[in-house]
Design goal:
- 2 copies of one chain form a homodimer.
- Chain A is mainly α.
- Chain A has 2 domains: 3-143, no CATH class; 144-485, Neurolysin, domain 3.
- Chain A has helices spanning 3-30, 37-56, 58-67, 74-91, 95-118, 121-142, 149-155, 163-185, 197-210, 248-264, 281-296, 299-311, 318-326, 342-357, 366-378, 404-424, 428-432, 437-446, 456-464, 471-482, and strands at 218-222, 228-232, 235-240.
- In chain A, strands 1-3-2 form a 3-stranded mixed beta sheet, with helices on both faces.
- In chain A, helix 5 packs antiparallel against helix 6, helix 8 (163-185) packs antiparallel against helix 14 and helix 11 packs across helix 16 (404-424).
- The radius of gyration of chain A is 23 Å and the shape is globular.
- At the A-B interface, helix 1 and helix 2 of A face helix 1 and helix 2 of B.
């Protein structure tokens, strides 16, 4: 058989296995009785091992070699280009390093869980040190032309991002945001809005229905840590969470919708190829942040959301809802941070993980560095490591290079939103009526359609005419900081 | 590595892939938005192909050869014995025949769907003929020592069953049941009981809770065709269906519970081996039928069920409920048949599929043969092929040899029930109080524990001291036939 055909079949198989992994993970977090945990770990393990074997087989190298001289159409050329890139990267990782990392990540997560529960950083330090060491080794295996190990770790989530560029962006952002945060510090904003869960539930369903979430192709369920699963192009599963104490569900459901919409609007020709999913973590996060920050947190859409809450039995003024959804207050915990200070949490993590990987920060000095960073960037005192450097699972799980995408998502969302409004005109009137069709169409055309054919930076350039830039985000947060409470 | 170790790892992998297949199928039937169908077909296809490849690899033959001379413990000897049997069977099937069958089955199901909708047997005949021909070829590839192709088709579902034995059993049963059915023909039993769906829902949940269905290890959902999925030893997913017009949900949920309980009570040492699931279709069906016929349809347990219905707001006399759950009336459609006439539907399908596979019945003559058989066995006139030989999907899907398990399940359940009562004493008093602990323990010890270490007939012999026998079932149905309405 034709090597292109074989390569495409293998990519289709890997796409199917990836979808099954996502299904099994979704089920685990949403449907599975707790008794299923042990069996599920085995099932996911078997799937991961099989997928790894099929993704790294020598036969792929033979097909790629045969395809070097082939005449290919545009799409096939992209398929082969990305396949070669990934296969070559995987071949540079020794099998025993891969196995050792996967053990260390599993053990690291357990160690982190115990350490956080007991506020015991010292108990976690050896596992973290092992993870840092293995991540550095991993990055070094992939390093070419002096890119450095951290850049290669980034590349696992965001191919083509450069450490130097992130340093520069985050340093500028880290200088610009704290004064804005300081400015609102004097306010004591009202951030709680006690909307009963059943009211939120109705409002969320109806709001999602407005933006196109139908029963034929979507599900909405509850999960303790909201996420989205795309099991098939027309099988998107959003999750959110409800609490009587706040209206996070309104933001979180639209955030997840952004992830889901991205995957659904990719060119159907890319389905079951290696290009048929979102191109990177930062672009994915930009899609969720666009719906969370620029739609759900806009004053115009607050009228729609308030209308839905009122329809479900909780009347309130749109301006009050908007104030609640955009209240700013520097705080300790990343996942509950406001839209202005959120990137500061990420900048801190970026600085620290980069320093650990590059050997400039010893693991044992992490708590002190965290404490200083929180003081410098957010002006808050860290009362304990559990609420400090132990709050996130990522490093315990060996994920280095992942954090930046959270802040990049905020930046890219703002940049895309400006580009879109400069092309389509202000979205305010449309949003007031809950009309999001043109937004969806613009995103489809400029971002979603390409799948993985364009990496992060080329995609941003094509959609906005510029490289990544912090100014649009600063323009987005300025009014939040300036506003009186 | 040790060949035993390798074999066990492969079996564990196949068990994990099997569980993922079950999860993906459960999700498809219970949770998936309809838009996910196309992607799911690809995912299940990829999984099936991978599992087939891993189950038939040449390396397995090498491990088995190395193990021929090994000293093994009892459990390992069974693992190797069953692995060898399955691997050798799979090697006798040419790859192109396997592929051709899988295409023919997919196309046959589509053809069947159209034909049933249009009551058009002639439209289905070519697909059926192809399926019959391929099934015969398949059986012939496996045939050794003159067993005949049908027996090998049976072996796919029930290893060790002999065609001659089934002929004999079903012929005796086909002679004994029609006079009993005739006897109740004069009655006009009241079979409908319009219990509102929400009442049934509560009663079903509470009844299942009584028999041990907790939230930690079980789920209960709704499916158009109830089934059970065992994703892990402590992750069992029952389904049932509700209708305002009848109380089928009470029977169906306990039926599915029987399937689920079987898989949960297998020796934990067999988990992730090739022995860690129910041994055959007929034993599986015997477990569901035992809970459906001998528990849910018993006069004693009717008191529990009536109590649960009353607790949910629908008071009725236990005797009335029992009469409804056991009313007998010969009818056209297998899936809604009563407990007495149900096996007659199966006997007809067995006779016809055996005759088709053995070339004694031409596909084109099937409708006439069906018509005659329904008249002879059930005394009913068949008004259309849609309500006749087109009613079941099995032959369209290429499943020959599967039907007998439905009747065998009824027989084996009755036989096990008698053996259990002769050991434990009558269950009546316990059932009246909803106490099923001793039943579960007896089934665990005599049936479930063995997984696939014992095939159908040896298992029945061990549990009951006899081979398969129709008398217990006849003793079970006699009072149903004799009863005045």
């Amino acid at each position: 058989m034709d090597p292109l055909q074989r390569l495409r079949e293998r990519m289709a198989e890997l796409a199917d296995l990836g979808a099954l992994d996502m299904l099994a993970t979704w089920d685990q977090l949403v449907m599975m009785p707790s008794g299923g945990a042990e069996a599920r770990a085995n099932q996911l393990g078997a799937l991961a091992q099989l997928a790894h074997e099929r993704a790294t087989g020598e036969e792929i190298g033979e097909w790629l070699a045969a395809l070097e001289v082939a005449q290919l159409g545009d799409l096939d050329r992209d398929i082969v280009r990305v396949a070669r890139r990934e296969w070559e990267r995987s071949c540079r990782i020794p099998a025993d390093l891969a196995a050792e990392r996967s053990r260390a990540h599993a053990e690291g997560q357990e160690s982190w869980r115990r350490a956080r529960a007991n506020d015991d950083f010292a108990g976690f330090a050896p596992a973290l040190e092992r993870n840092v060491g293995l991540a550095r080794q991993y990055g070094e295996c992939l390093t070419q032309c002096g890119t450095g190990p951290y850049q290669e770790l980034l590349a696992e989530y965001d191919f083509g991002l450069e450490t130097a560029m992130l340093r520069e962006l985050f340093s500028a952002l880290g200088a610009a945001l704290p004064p804005l945060a300081e400015q609102v510090r004097a306010h004591s904003p009202r951030r709680q809005l006690a909307v009963p869960v059943d009211v939120q539930h109705t409002a969320v369903r109806n709001t999602l229905r407005r933006v196109g979430v139908d029963q034929q192709g979507w599900r909405l369920d509850v999960a303790p840590h909201p996420f989205t699963a795309w099991i098939g192009r027309s099988d998107t599963r959003l999750t959110t969470r409800y609490s009587d104490g706040n209206v996070e569900s309104l933001l979180s459901s639209l955030h997840e919708y952004g992830h889901g919409l991205y995957e659904r609007q990719i060119d159907p020709a890319l389905v079951r190829t290696n290009l048929g999913r979102g191109t990177s973590m930062s672009i994915h996060e930009s899609q969720s942040k666009l719906w969370e920050n620029h739609v759900a947190r806009s004053p115009a859409f607050a009228e729609v959301l308030a209308g839905e809450l009122e329809g479900a039995g909780f009347p309130l003024a749109p301006a009050d809802l908007h104030a609640t959804l955009t209240a700013v207050e520097p705080s300790l915990i990343r996942v509950s941070a406001d839209p202005l200070t959120y990137p500061l949490h990420i900048i801190l993590r970026f600085e620290l993980e980069l320093a650990m990987i590059e050997g400039e920060l010893a693991v044992i000095d992490l708590p002190a560095a965290w404490h200083d960073g929180m003081q410098r960037l957010l002006g808050v005192e860290v009362p304990s490591d559990a609420q400090g450097c132990l709050q996130d699972i990522h490093w315990g799980a060996g994920s280095f290079g992942y954090f930046p995408s959270y802040a990049l998502g905020c930046l890219i969302a703002a940049q895309l939103w400006e580009a879109m409004e400069s092309e389509l005109g202000p979205r305010e009137e449309d949003l007031r009526r809950g009309e999001v069709g043109p937004i969806k169409a613009w995103l489809a055309e400029h971002v979603h359609w390409y799948g993985r054919r364009l990496d992060t930076i080329p995609l941003i350039r094509q959609a906005t005419g510029r490289s990544l830039d912090i100014e649009p985000f600063l323009r987005y947060v300025a009014p939040l900081a300036a506003r009186t409470p």
